């Protein structure tokens, strides 16, 4: 059973603090994009609805979704059952411009749950998984002690939250590692597996990351680490995990790994990642990380 984390004193660090701007941008201000590095970390996408999060608990779990109408009813049922047993955990769904019935299903599910432990943020124009995660983390980071990230279709069960919180008692960041878990994923097309393996190795070596599974949708952050990292995150697509871990290494945050077990229903699900297009985009994102660091965007 997930228990409320004990209050622990952290030694003060000398990591730089982000200075507030004199004229902060409004949530509905259009994102400024560049042909190479894309939107800046401070830019925003016009939103359909971005209410303030209310009554947040010490632990907040962010779940980004896009066109998940098929899996959402089951996900909402599991999340609702979980929050009734864990009053110190809040779940926030981020709807990344879904064009199916995801938003309606979420709205009805939250209305039926009748608890502030289940909330959502949504916007009309799809902006990418990285943007959705950043939006949710920024909305919650000043009101909680721990922030967790789970894929919105619960590719990793809620039981993993226990392991994340245990790891975060001695580390700034905790990430899932599918190589440490016992998984029986079905055999995929050999080309998809080879391309994924190649780009993962390229990203690890290019960025100097020591983690064999940097992009598993299972991560946890202590509040100080989350505040600094998501204030500097700029990538809005599937490569945002790589940028976060690169920033974690740059600023000296400790990272723990926990076993990650892919859920049985997710093993049969068709991936939304496009085989060639998204992996070529990942290569471009790696160049963006190098460029952003070179021009001082990560200071």
UniProtKB/TrEMBL annotation:
One Pfam match: Glycos_transf_2
- The biased composition feature labelled Basic residues covers 1-20
What the entry lists under InterPro entries is as follows: Glyco_trans_2-like, Nucleotide-diphossugar_trans
A single GO BP term for this record reads: protein N-linked glycosylation
The segments labelled Disordered in the record are 1-31
Glycosyltransferase 2-like domain segment(s): 61-225
This protein's source sits in the domain of life called: Bacteria
Protein name listed in UniProt: Glycosyltransferase
């Amino acid at each position: 059973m997930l228990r409320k984390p004990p209050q622990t004193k952290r030694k003060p660090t000398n990591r730089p603090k982000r200075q507030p701007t004199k004229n902060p941008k409004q949530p509905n201000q259009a994102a400024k994009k560049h042909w190479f590095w894309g939107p800046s970390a401070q830019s925003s996408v016009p939103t359909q609805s971005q209410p303030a999060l209310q009554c947040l608990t010490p632990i907040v779990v962010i779940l980004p979704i896009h066109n998940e109408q098929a899996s959402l009813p089951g996900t909402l049922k599991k999340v609702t059952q979980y929050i009734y047993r864990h009053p110190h955990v809040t779940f926030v769904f981020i709807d990344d411009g879904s064009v199916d019935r995801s938003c309606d299903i979420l709205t009805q599910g939250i209305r039926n749950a009748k608890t502030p432990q289940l909330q959502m943020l949504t916007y009309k124009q799809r902006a990418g998984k990285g943007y959705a995660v950043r939006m949710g983390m920024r909305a919650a980071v000043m009101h909680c002690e721990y922030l967790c990230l789970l894929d919105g279709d619960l590719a990793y069960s809620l039981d993993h939250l226990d392991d994340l919180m245990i790891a975060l008692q001695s580390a700034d960041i905790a990430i899932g590692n599918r190589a440490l878990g016992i998984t029986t994923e079905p055999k995929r097309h050999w080309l998809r597996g080879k391309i994924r393996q190649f780009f993962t190795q390229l990203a690890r070596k290019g960025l100097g990351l020591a983690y064999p599974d940097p992009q598993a949708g299972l991560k946890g952050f202590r509040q100080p680490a989350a505040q600094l990292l998501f204030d500097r995150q700029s990538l809005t697509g599937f490569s945002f995990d790589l940028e976060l871990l690169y920033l974690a290494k740059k600023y000296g945050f400790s990272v723990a790994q926990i076993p990650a077990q892919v859920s049985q229903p997710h093993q049969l699900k068709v991936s939304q990642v496009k085989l060639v297009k998204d992996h070529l985009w990942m290569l471009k994102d790696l160049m963006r990380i190098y460029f952003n660091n070179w021009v001082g965007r990560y200071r």
